[in-house]
Predict the 3D structure of the following.
Amino acid sequence: MTRVAHLADLHLCERVRYEGTLRCLRVFVDQVRSRGADIAVIAGDLVDPRRAPARATPTERNALAFQLRRLASECPVAVVRGNHDALGDWSFLSSMRTAGNPVYFTECPRPTIWANRGLIGEVGVCIVSIPWISPRDFASQARALDLDIDEGHAWTGEAISRMLDKIRPDVEQLRQEGIPIVGVAHASIRGGRLGSGQVLVGGEVQLPREVLDGFPFDYLALGHLHERQQATARGWYSGSPNRLDFGEAGKPCSWNMVEVEPGSEPVVEYVDLPADELATMTGIVHEGDDGIRLDLSTEHAPEDLAGAEVRLRLVVPEGLAGEDLVAQAIRDVESRGATVVVQRIPVAALRARAGSEEIAAAPSARAKVEAFLGQRDHSAAQVARVLRLLDDIEGEVG
């Protein structure tokens, strides 16, 4: 049996919840060292410079390297590049001096196995690394395989299948020798759920699970989607170790401890981490018979706000002098031990957001336009003119 510690999507960032994310990383290293592991794998997105990709800061790079050296004192560490990790930014990891085991890093945008017949550590683990493959790189490799990339996304499955086929003979030989095959990939799996719970739809290259199910992985450690979940027959997202935005408030954060036996189902345990508490509260300023007041909703906030970061969404209509009420609301939330982030919402934006579900549910482009126009103060003549223009456009396209 081989014990694999699987972490992904750290998104360490000096500007956003840095101390909380670093705390989760320290706890992860401590837990792995106390529980024991034969290898640790990190499936991409080491840092989060708020644009992808961009260089890590010296503080982020040094903090992460220090923790990886601590982790390597327990077991070998294998890391792949994520879409937030700049090319060349982390290549030094493979030559970093450690007191114990090596750290392996790969960023080449195609599936590879490690050198020395793919073996890592005394127990002999074959690591199949699949770093982030950008749409441009993926299309370039697909063209090299003579695939027609103008056929929507139908070619993506064939492309990744052929890429994996290039290393399949070596991997299957190792598996016949009883060596566990562990994949580490930063990728989107078709049908996966986002950190907000929504199902991934479009926007980037999505790998079909049936292709990955056909490859002889004993365990596939996935990164990129922040919701912990099983995405293929033997592939799991561990989830992010910290909550990265307010849409992820309340979601569990963790890493995976996995027991792997060649040819058997992996045993996967989610190990929780002490993620930052996030909450959203909404305050609406309005004028009534008794003057101007602010109604503060706490329906999405826990009772105990100590140590939490609270997004205070404030709606203040133009012309109402509600700043004193707003300042008092901020003081009240801070008095409960929370850090407050204020977000002001224009009334027009609030109205558009309230009607978004109706627009999204409309079955056709015309129905969506009609729903959009119906939520606004347009005359019947204006609505009719817009719909005529839409009919003309659809007629030309048809």
About this structure: The mean pLDDT is 83. The longest strand covers residues 278-288.
